[in-house]
């Protein structure tokens, strides 16, 4: 389906990701050392965010993507369940659950063999995120949230295929 016009607008404004792999780090270097890091939101914040890559290893007893480590030191399950799922004014999934879904798309892109991982037999990383989100949601909100998640997933896929940073997290896959 077509994405809402404002969503397409937002996506066209993004700068393309330079090459593949280490893109964000390269961008900091291009912008010139500390100045580049400053432009990326402060040296420390920038480095912490850039160093994160979604990992296949899970934390704790549960399995699948929700059990993997988020950039915030907790598992995605711990991080996301502290906040009810949210959508923005275009009904695109936002907030912690939006971040999680976007990173799941990054994970799928960076780990092309995820489909052979037993943790993902029941469904891919992004599918698992959406299922976990719906299990945390009031019945009356589930249809809207499912649509919001589908829209974000489509936007992420489009960003990945056109080499743009992903929405919500503003990171290249």
Provide structural commentary.
With 173 residues, the protein is an all-alpha fold. It contains eight helices and two strands. It has helices spanning 5-13, 23-30, 33-39, 43-51, 76-80, 95-110, 125-135, 142-161, and strands at residues 86-87, 93-94. Strands 1-2 form a two-stranded antiparallel sheet. Helix 6 runs antiparallel to helix 7 (125-135), helix 6 packs across helix 8 and helix 7 (125-135) packs antiparallel against helix 8. The longest helix is centred in the C-terminal third of the chain and has 20 residues, at 142-161. The radius of gyration is 16 Å and the shape is globular. The protein starts with a helix and ends in a 12-residue tail after the last helix. Mean pLDDT is 79; it is low at 21-49.
